[in-house]
Amino acid sequence: MDSTLPAVAEELLKEIKKAFQETSHGTDMFSFRLKFVFGPSAVPALDLVDQRSVTRVVSPSGRTAYQVLGSSGKLYTCYSSCHFCTCPAFGFTVLQKCESLLCKHILAVYLSQALGACQELTVSEEQLTSILLAEEEDEG
């Protein structure tokens, strides 16, 4: 979680991580604050985390991306380092209309990181490149 989010969002995610590390409890006590800060993305993102839909994909060089299995069954690639998701909602609601800080997929990535709930997948450099290029082909 770099400084790509507003400070209040960053602080909330840090609090969730700290509380989880100390008590191993989920996000129940933070649900109101999550809804307040992240709006309608909060509950669906929590559902994605509960379903263990977030996978951290790592290559031997250390390059990392996240894949999130959306509620529609489509796999989206997310980049927490630059706060970006390949889903249509991110492009429309976040980038075009500026109505939201992020989509449910990116929020699920941040929450999974905070809760230690990411699945891990190690792939070769070629496989990671294919994952990244597959997204571009889908858009083209």
Task: Provide the descriptors you would attach to this structure in a database record.
single chain, 140 residues, alpha+beta, five-stranded mixed sheet, 50% helix, 16% strand, globular, metal-binding, zinc-finger, zinc, ZSWM7 protein, Znf_SWIM
Could you explain the architecture of this structure?
The structure is a single chain. The chain has 140 residues and is of the alpha+beta class. The chain has one domain. 50% of the residues lie in helices and 16% in strands. It contains six helices and five strands. Strands 4-3-2-1-5 form a five-stranded mixed sheet. It starts with 6 loop residues before the first helix and ends with a helix. Residues 76-114 form the SWIM-type domain. InterPro entries: Znf_SWIM. Keywords: Metal-binding, Zinc, Zinc-finger.
Strand content: 15-25%
Spatial order of the strands in the main sheet? 4-3-2-1-5
From the spread of the alpha carbons, the general shape counts as globular
The helical percent reads 40-55%
Q: What is the makeup of the main sheet? A: 5 strands, mixed
Q: Which structural category fits the helices and strands?
A: alpha+beta
Helix/strand order: HHHEEEEHHEH
Gyration radius over CA: 15 Å
Distance between the termini: 30 Å
Low-confidence stretches: none
The average pLDDT is 85
How many independent structural domains? 1
Tell me the number of strands.
5
Number of alpha- plus pi-helical segments: 6
Quaternary state of this entry equals: single chain
GO cellular component, one term: Shu complex
Keywords: Metal-binding, Zinc, Zinc-finger
Protein name: ZSWM7 protein
GO molecular function: zinc ion binding
